[in-house]
Amino acid sequence: MEAFTTHTGRAVPLRRSNVDTDQIIPAHWLKKVTRDGFEDGLFEAWRKDPQFVLNQERYKGATVLVAGPDFGTGSSREHAVWALQNYGFKAVISSRFADIFRGNSLKNGLLTVVLPQETVDRLQQLVEADPAAEVTVDLVDRQVRAGGITADFELDENARWRLLEGLDDISLTLREESSIVEYEANRPSFKPRTIEV
Amino acid sequence: MGRTLAEKVWDDHVVRRAEGEPDLLFIDLHLLHEVTSPQAFDGLRKAGRQVRRTDLTIATEDHNTPTLDIDKPIADPVSRTQLETLRKNCAEFGVRLHPLGDVEQGVVHVVGPQLGLTQPGTTVVCGDSHTSTHGAFGALAFGIGTSQVEHVLATQTLPLAPFKTMAITVDGELPDGVTAKDLILAIIAKIGTGGGQGYVLEYRGSAIEKLSMEARMTICNMSIEAGARAGMIAPDKTTFDYLQGRDHAPEGEDWDAAVAYWKTLRTDDDAVFDAEVHIDATSLAPFVTWGTNPGQGAPLSANVPDPASYEDASERMAAERALEYMGLTAGQPLREINVDTVFVGSCTNGRIEDLRSAASILEGRKVADGVRMLVVPGSVRVSLEAVAEGLDKVFTAAGAEWRHAGCSMCLGMNPDQLAPGERSASTSNRNFEGRQGKGGRTHLVSPQVAAATAVLGHLASPADLSDADVATPAGV
């Protein structure tokens, strides 16, 4: 995974709540067997509308998405995270993310930042008034800075450390091999098995 | 202090616990399907890793599979490639697979329980959010992303952040014609699509205890639509009876040991939940959705709500958008909404009891002119059982289409889709924009409401049907 320390870029406001992962990447895109090439599927249905915020010239090249509450609800498809990253987003800010989407994002180095709704509103107003405004998402200091706005955010220390270091979860877990072996040795015999090995 | 059911199951799976780190949990059962696994197998290959526990892993094909002409090559080359990729990966890594055409094939969340692999007190994961279904057995079951699928394949564990617990207590008796689907839709409307966020929900109370295993699965299945990490129901005699004798259920001494353990999987009397919700079952009625998220629902007897009635600005805006997308106007009676398509199936309502329930209403009646009805069993086993009972004949005699098992019209990944602007009454779990096909409009309903809607052509419950709708004597 690519490490995330701090990122500065322009931001695009997405004033919609409950943006589910079917909107982020529709199901027919899920037939692909790779992790890339999803950028054209991002918000596919909405992008057919020339007025949709991502289609507006002034937000071209933005790398931070400032979204409405309950972003990423629904399906567990990690493709939603890949689509956002393939399109060029480095961070998403919202007052509330769906759990699975949030977990997926942090495992891929897409920083999902939770801020109070009123702060999200102010950020959206800022980038609506001035699309050239730069937003800094600083994981080292756990802070979002933009215009006159400075907002601290929380992220648990372990997740933050993994992101800052760009650590691969599987390698970390495999260091616990002996604990896994010990656990396996003590599992009850009545637990189900799919095949005899 | 006592522990909740979820805490007990969690504690029994901790491989490693360290201050300031997520617990590392052992996974008892890993279900795979074609959509969310290819990139995970690729990751294993690139790192030179194996599947650690092929004996705790099982795969089936469901999302892409067609429900017609299954003996012919799959027409969509991209879908075909994805299915072939799963077959290749399972062969290479030694994973048991039930492909299209196999008697154990079906929707992954129907297959696990019917094989007896889903058991109380187990941890179950799958790269699919509706894995919450398996919580009906008192399992801790949740959907994961593809990175986590790879993690489980490689290590049979997952590092997991702590959760909160919420009790959803449903007391009283569900009125006639009110099903588990109506109950869960009402729960989601009450707590909202984000209401369960961070929580493992435990459904309890006398109304839940009376539910069959299949009804419990319908409830737990939609926990994710309330944003929950998982949903659970304490195992009891209903659970044990369902499991006994199934292919992978324990036998002999193992059965006795298992049941003894399973009986301990109840929330202690002195355990404290982080949140509690109470529902009076007697107050419930058939429930349908009018909007574009599963929390936007109302009793069938209600009218489409007026967005202006919402105090919260973002809810108001969401309702406005939803009405526009759904082509509805505020104040319109829900019962007067005409549909083009009725879909009975999915991991929510594609089990035998669901098919029986829909068939009992369709028996001797006809699907309304101009309405297309698809009945899609959740698995080949369900299909065979339905055929043995003659349910397929009831459906086809009524003018419905009887299809092969699969996810079908739940999600717009296979040929079964709504056309733009088309409206459905669907027993599936998501009414998101375009979920059932680009531009499609979905109303989530129970199997009973689906069947009554098919007969009348507008959203309706069985109580709206008169005997005059019955064209031929029952039993024909």
Automatic annotation (TrEMBL), chain A:
Keyword list, A-Z: Amino-acid biosynthesis, Branched-chain amino acid biosynthesis, Leucine biosynthesis, Lyase
Boundaries of every Aconitase A/isopropylmalate dehydratase small subunit swivel domain copy: 1-118
PANTHER family: 3-ISOPROPYLMALATE DEHYDRATASE SMALL SUBUNIT, 3-ISOPROPYLMALATE DEHYDRATASE SMALL SUBUNIT 2-RELATED-RELATED
Record-stated family: Belongs to the LeuD family. LeuD type 1 subfamily.
Protein role: Catalyzes the isomerization between 2-isopropylmalate and 3-isopropylmalate, via the formation of 2-isopropylmaleate.
Subunit structure: Heterodimer of LeuC and LeuD.
Cross-referenced HAMAP family: LeuD_type1
Protein name, UniProt field: 3-isopropylmalate dehydratase small subunit
Organism: Streptomyces inhibens
Protein's gene: leuD
TrEMBL record, chain B:
One Pfam family linked to the record: Aconitase
GO biological process: L-leucine biosynthetic process
Sorted UniProt keywords: 4Fe-4S, Amino-acid biosynthesis, Branched-chain amino acid biosynthesis, Iron, Iron-sulfur, Leucine biosynthesis, Lyase, Metal-binding
Cofactor binding remark: Binds 1 [4Fe-4S] cluster per subunit.
Biological or metabolic pathway of the protein: Amino-acid biosynthesis; L-leucine biosynthesis; L-leucine from 3-methyl-2-oxobutanoate: step 2/4
CDD domains linked to this entry: IPMI
InterPro entries: 3-IsopropMal_deHydase_lsu, Acnase/IPM_dHydase_lsu_aba_1/3, Acoase/IPM_deHydtase_lsu_aba, Aconitase_4Fe-4S_BS, Aconitase_4Fe-4S_dom, IPM_dehydratase_rel_enz, IPMI_cat
EC number: 4.2.1.33
Catalytic activity: (2R,3S)-3-isopropylmalate = (2S)-2-isopropylmalate
Name of the protein described by the UniProt record: 3-isopropylmalate dehydratase large subunit
Phylogenetic classification of the source organism: Bacteria, Bacillati, Actinomycetota, Actinomycetes, Kitasatosporales
Gene name of the record: leuC
